[in-house]
Known about the structure:
By secondary structure, chain A is an alpha+beta fold. Chain A has helices at residues 3-7, 23-33, 53-62, 71-74, 88-97, 117-139, and strands spanning 16-17, 37-41, 47-52, 102-107, 110-116. Chain B has 18 helices and 20 strands.
Amino acid sequence: xxxxxxxxxxxxxxxxxxxxxxxxxxxxxxxxxxxxxxxxxxxxxxxxxxxxxxxxxxxxxxxxxxxxxxxxxxxxxxxxxxxxxxxxxxxxxxxxxxxxxxxxxxxxxxxxxxxxxxxxxxxxxxxxxxxxxxxxxxxxxxxx
Amino acid sequence: xxxxxxxxxxxxxxxxxxxxxxxxxxxxxxxxxxxxxxxxxxxxxxxxxxxxxxxxxxxxxxxxxxxxxxxxxxxxxxxxxxxxxxxxxxxxxxxxxxxxxxxxxxxxxxxxxxxxxxxxxxxxxxxxxxxxxxxxxxxxxxxxxxxxxxxxxxxxxxxxxxxxxxxxxxxxxxxxxxxxxxxxxxxxxxxxxxxxxxxxxxxxxxxxxxxxxxxxxxxxxxxxxxxxxxxxxxxxxxxxxxxxxxxxxxxxxxxxxxxxxxxxxxxxxxxxxxxxxxxxxxxxxxxxxxxxxxxxxxxxxxxxxxxxxxxxxxxxxxxxxxxxxxxxxxxxxxxxxxxxxxxxxxxxxxxxxxxxxxxxxxxxxxxxxxxxxxxxxxxxxxxxxxxxxxxxxxxxxxxxxxxxxxxxxxxxxxxxxxxxxxxxxxxxxxxxxxxxxxxxxxxxxxxxxxxxxxxxxxxxxxxxxx
Lengths: 144, 466
C-alpha cells in the first residue's frame, strides 16, 4: 500500500494558506475544517512550510499577541514532504521517528494532498485486520 | 414521512458490483442495530463474487472459500441479486435514483496500468489481468489467445498478480487439473511449451510486493525450479540499513527465502522460474512479423525519498532478455462509471471516506458511496475490504440520520424489479446462481475437480433453461 491509496479516499480538498496571512485566519481555517495543521503554499502551490496547532500554542505561550502575526513567522520551514509512491510502511516509520504528525504530499513539486499520522495508523490497522480476516477464512471450515 | 430504515419503510440500497467489497457492504448494513435495510446487488456478469471467481488463482481454492461468508450474507431475506445487469447500459444512474435511497459503487479496479514504453503493443505483449481473466473463465476473455508455444516468458512486476501468473505458467498439467481453471485454459497450458519464466522486479528483494506465503509456494512447484541471481538477492546498503532501523521481521523473512533460492541447485525439473530484481523494461523488441522477441532492461539502483521510501532509479547499464511472451502487471486502476465523479490521478471514484464527492463543490453527492478498490485503489487482500466497507457504511448510517439521502419516487421492491426485468429479461437471481453453482460443482465432481466453470453467458443462460 502506498500514500496514493490513502489520498484516494480523502476527496480533493486540501486546506492551505498563504504565508503572508495572519494567524487569526489560520486559526479560523483549522477550526472550520476540524484539522490540526495547515500547509503554507506559495502562488504556484508549492509547499513552503507547515503551521500546526502546536506551533500556535508554543507561540501563544510566549506572547499573547499571537493573532496578528503572520503564518510565515510561526510556521515550520524545511518540511519533510512525501510523494504518492511512498510506501505506507516507510512513511509510518519516518513520521513516528521524526515525530511528524502531518506530511504534505507533492507531485512534481506541487501539493496534491496531506496525510496525517492518524490516516497512516488507520490504513495500517485496516491492512492488518484484513490480513487476519483473510487468514482466518483460510483456516476455518465455516467462516464467520 | 418517517425516516427510512424501519420495518414499515426499509432503507433501500443498491450495490453495483458483486465482489467482496459489495458483499461486505451488504453485510455491514444488515448488522446495523435498529436499521432495516434492503439490499439489491447488481453485477454486469451473471455470476457473483467478482475477483474471487475471476481473479484469485484457480490453485488457491482455500482463498475462494470466503464465498461461504458471502453466501451467508446473500441468504438474508432482504438481499436480492441481479446478475447480468450492466450498470450504465441496462440500468442508468437516474433509474437507480428513482428506486433507492442510497447507491454504493463497488466495481473494483478493472483495468491495468501501462508500462508506457516502446513496443508495448507488439503481438505477444499482454496485460497480466487478461491472462488471469482468461484462465479463470471470465466470459469477456474466454476467446483471447496467448502464444504458449513460446519457450521464454517475462512477467513484469512482483506483486501477487505477477506471482500468480508466473506460478500458473510453471504448474504441471497434473497440478492444474486438480483446480477449477477454465477447461480451455487447462488444455492450452497442458500443451504449453513454456520452459523459462522471468519475474521482473523494479526494486530490490526487500521492497517486493509479494507476500511470504506466495513466494514460498513458488519454491514448492512439482515441475519447476526457482532461482534468483545471487547478486540480486543480496541487499544493498540502503535496504540493509532500512531493515535494521525498522526491525521488520516479515521483510527479513522474505529476504531470507529469496536468498535461499539463490543458493539452490537448479536440477531435475523441466521448467525454470527466475526472479529478477532492480530491473525495469525500457523497450520491447519485435521481430519482422511484429511479435515480441526480447525486452531491453535497464538496471536500477535504489535511493531514499525524503519520507523514507526506497525507490528505484535508472542507471546507465542495460541488458537484453530474449522472451517471446510478456505479461505486464505494474498496477491497476478503476474505470469511470457513467455519471459518477472520477478522480483520474488516483483511478478511483472521487470520494471522501467512501462518500462520493462532487468535484465542483467539493461537497458529498447525496446518496452515492463507494467501497473497495474503486474507493481506495487496488491494494490489500480480500479481507481489507471489510474495514473499508465498514467505513463507508458508517458514513451511510450517519447521512441517513441527517436524512441526507435520496428521495426515490418508487422505493418499493417490486418497482425496481419491474424495471430490471423489462431492461434485462435474462437477469440472474441468487437462486439462479445457486443452481449454476451446483451444476458447476457437479460437473467438477465427475472429473475430480472443485468445479468446472461455465465460461460464457449463453452457456449459463442455457443451463438455466433460458
